[in-house]
Amino acid sequence: MKKSTDIGLIGEKKACEYLVDMGYEIINTRYRAKGGEIDIIAKQGDVICFIEVKYRPDARLGEAFSSVDEDKRRRVRSAARQYILDNNIKCKQRFDIIEITRAGIWHMKGGKA
Fold first, then answer.
1. What is the pLDDT of residue 113?
2. What pLDDT score does 4 carry?
3. 36: closest CA among 86, 88, 5, 74?
4. Phi and psi torsions of 89, nearest 5°
5. Average pLDDT, the chain
6. What's the pLDDT band for 64 if we cut at 50, 70, 90?
7. Distance from C-alpha of 32 to C-alpha of 72, rounded to nearest angstrom
8. Pairing of strands 104-108, 47-56
9. What does the alpha-carbon distance between residue 66 and residue 20 come to, in Å, rounded to a whole number?
10. pTM of this prediction?
11. Given phi > 0 = left and psi -120 to 50 = alpha, else beta, which region is 49?
12. For residue 73, what pLDDT band results from cuts at 50, 70 and 90?
């Protein structure tokens, strides 16, 4: 059985491939800051997207979104603030969730962070 870290890396790779196919530029993956982490940081046009990836190959579409609870959103916001400060980001920002299940990929843009 694969470790959850290995499974997460597979999901993030699939999400990056999807994003590139959709015209996004991948800026960073697995960004870590004090208090939080961001799976993918990508750029779409003039918008920086902070993306949480949920990979559940055996789940139904929509099941993994519930795991992005208030605590997870707080940690993503904290890491995003640090990334913005460290990199002097002056453009629009957006928080997305990508869920990958046996049914496919669901990309929720601009979800509540």
1. 45
2. 61
3. 74
4. -75, 130
5. 87
6. low
7. 14
8. unpaired
9. 26
10. 0.87
11. beta
12. confident
Give the DSSP H/E element, type plus range, for residue 88. Answer: none
17/38 Cα distance (integer angstroms): 17
Structure tokens at 105: 């990929």
SS3 110: coil
Secondary structure class of 93 (helix, strand, coil): strand
What token pair was written down for 26? 């991948």
Compute CA 4 distance to the chain's CA centroid, rounded to the nearest angstrom. 16
Tokens for 49, please give them: 């997207």
CB atoms closer than 10 angstroms to residue 83: 20
- In the chain, what's the furthest Cα-to-Cα distance? 43
DSSP for 11-68, please give it.
Answer: HHHHHHHHHHHTT-EEEEEEEEETTEEEEEEEEETTEEEEEEEEEETTSPTTSGGGGS
- Per the DSSP assignment, residues forming a β-bridge with 108 are 97
Structural domains in the chain, CATH included, are 4-108 (3.40.1350.10)
Q: Is 3 exposed, middle or buried (0-12, 13-18, 19+ CB in 10 A)?
A: exposed
